[in-house]
Amino acid sequence: MKVFQNRVDAGRALGQRLHVLLGGGGDLVVLALPRGGVPVGFEVARMLGGPLDVFAVRKLGTPGHEELAMGAIATGGVAVLNAGVVRRLGIPEAAIAAAVEREARELARRDQLFRDGRPPARVEGRTVILVDDGLATGSTMRAALRALRQQGPARIVVGVPVGAPETCASLQGEADAVVCLYTPEPFFAVGQWYEDFTQTTDDEVRELLARAAHGDGAVQEAL
Fold first, then answer.
1. Calpha distance 160→37 (Å, rounded)
2. pTM of model > 0.70
3. 57 has which bridge partners?
4. Where are the alpha helices (DSSP H) in the chain?
């Protein structure tokens, strides 16, 4: 059964739930995990009346099976490893180090590309709404959470349209609040719950961030 038409539909539904939980306005910022989290985050920011930015995170793919995450890295040099995957597959430290180095370069490139010279949003002392299009293993979200903590936000709220039940539950201990609209069982994959789960492009991310920065939908702020 498909739950959402696309990421825009999912973002509006998530935004409505978060608006009930948090209300509008206040000193908050929406940070979306690129790329798929940005269309969702754009709608959430419009609903909450807050600014939108990206928080760059890169999955560390397992050698030979890149779609399987063995961990993730985030802005600020934070790396999170999935110890179970690493142990089960016997992944050597050299392979992990090579993946971290490779993905760190790509993370820096995308961070620069997406913002078009705009500085990162201010995080310290604010409520941060950390958004993605779904949660499977949670490696990228966990890396983002730990990296964000280092920047001193007042509160971090994780928001996703759909997530694996055990992953949503496991993040409760790291975020101040976790909002997963749907936690179906069996879960399988994020894309299974969307009619249209076409990959979000770099250009789409740049366009949405530019629209947000120029005040489209009441998400303007001097970052």
1. 9
2. yes
3. 74
4. 7-22, 37-48, 83-89, 93-115, 139-149, 165-170, 202-213
